[in-house]
Structures are given as structure tokens and as C-alpha cells.
Fold:
Amino acid sequence: MNKKPQEYTRKSGVSYVVITADQSGRRIDNYLLSYLKDVPKTRIYKMLRKGEVRVNRSRVKQDYKLQQQDVVRIPPVYQSAQHKRRPEPSPSLQGLIYRHIIHEDEQLLVINKPPGLAVHSGTNDAFGLIEILRAMRPEDSFLELVHRLDKSTSGCLMIARNHQLLRDLHELLKQNRVSKTYQTLLKGKISRSQVVDAPLSRRAGGHGKKHIQINESGKPSISRFTPVKVFSGATLARVEIDTGRTHQIRVHAASIGHPVAGDKKYGDSEFNRSLRKQGLKRMFLHADTLSLELPYTRERVSFRAPLPEDLQSLLVKI
Structure:
């Protein structure tokens, strides 16, 4: 008995992705399988065979290993008609993002990302910040994340509005020429500034989850912790990072015995439990400031996102 041909519906237009340091070393086929979760495996391998997927404008084989700064062209792809279409973000959610725009010009958007919102869609998220922005701005042919924040982390996030700016900003990040400052609440009392210079690497976690560890053969990572206000059993700190490794602040903070408040993966369960009783519902980590020279104006700028009300109210209680 012949199988009925599988039907496909249009999913999206051409997109370009610039590979970050954390993504380098992955095979292109494995990267696409995780990036295009709803697309059948056979379709992904067919795209590779036919040269529909390009890296730096060239065809690649399925075992090609991605390198930092590679530009991956992903063609319009099709998902099985049996998959339900993802819902459109609600007007209220789009309005929330609109109110969180810190800066906008013809080339760049800077958003104060709300906590609890993923930066992109995934298994447990029908849509993330980037999908909401694309729904809000259908006239924009190019909107891509420049960097990422964890789902529970709030604060400054850059979105490029053209391919050249995306490449330029990734180059600045690679050269550590973007200054990032965070605010965080740490366990214990910190009386003086501390610099943590500890390389990080990824190890396999359960159920495909990310787990980052300090490893001498890992990628260079430096975090500078400066106390801002000391409470009973906790310290509000400013953290400056040049590198932007996955979970960098969280792992570095835990390594010096002062884990981030509300961090379920690397934190202290008893400390977290005591703060939950005082109203903390998420990780206390906020991307406070981004400072850089804009490539298209050569102007030095700083973007700042004020500490959200939920974190401000906790500081009053403790």
C-alpha cells in the first residue's frame, strides 16, 4: 500500500543566523535539527543535500562543523500539515513588548526583556521575544537576536534590523568591546570586589538540558563582582562581564560561595526557599546596562534598563 505524500505548509521566510562561540563546533545537521524543531528530519537533510542551506554563501555537507561568526542561511522551510500552527502572540503581550522598547532607530532595537519570557520559541514556549517582535513588525524583513538572556533574566537585549549590523555587533562581542553590567542578589555578605577568572565548558545534562562547569580547557570567562548594598545574609552586587558565556554569572557566583538568589540549577536551595517566602518568584538577575560604540554612527552609547518592580520590592523586604 502506497503512503500518502506528506503535505507541508509554509512556515517562514529566509533567515540568517550568525553562529556564536557557544554554538561553534556543532555539526550543521545537529544544529538545524534543534533550530528547526517542527521540521521533519528528512526535510532538513534534503535541504543540506540540495544546497538550500548555505554557510558563508557556500554549500556544506551534513557533517560540517560550525565555527564562530559563520553565517548560516536558512531557506523558507515547511512543516508537516499535521502540526498545528503556533498561536499568534496576543495583543496584550505585543503591547507589553512595545512598552519595554528602550531604544529604536533604523538599524537597532534595544528591549528591556521582561522576566519569564524566552528570547525565542522552543519546546515549552510557543513563541519568544523575537517571534513577538516579528508579529508586531511584519514590514521588517530582518529582525535577529544579537545575543541572548536566560528566560528568567530581565534587562537589556539587542535586536539587529539588518544583516550587516548583526555581523558588526557579533564582531564587537567577539572582541569584548561591548560592556555588559548586571545587577544580582547573592547569598552571603561580600565586603569587597572580586574578580572571577575561570574558563567554562558545557557538559551533557539530563533530558538534554544545559549544564555549565568550570574547566581549565574551557572558554575564557571573566566576571567582576562589586558589592552595592549588604543585607542580612545577602548582598546586592553589580557584575561586569566582557565575555558572555552561557550561565557565566551564575556559575562564577556559585564558584565563590555566593550563588545567585533564586537560581534553581546552581544555587542554594535553603537560601532560595527563604527568599521565596519573602516574595521572590524568579532568579534575581537583571541585565542593567549595555555600553558600546555603534558601528553605523561611531558614537559611544549606553542603554540602561531599570531594575524591575518585583526585584525592587524584594530589596525593601529583606
Observations:
- Helices lie at 28-35, 41-50, 91-99, 129-136, 163-174, 248-255, 269-276, 309-317.
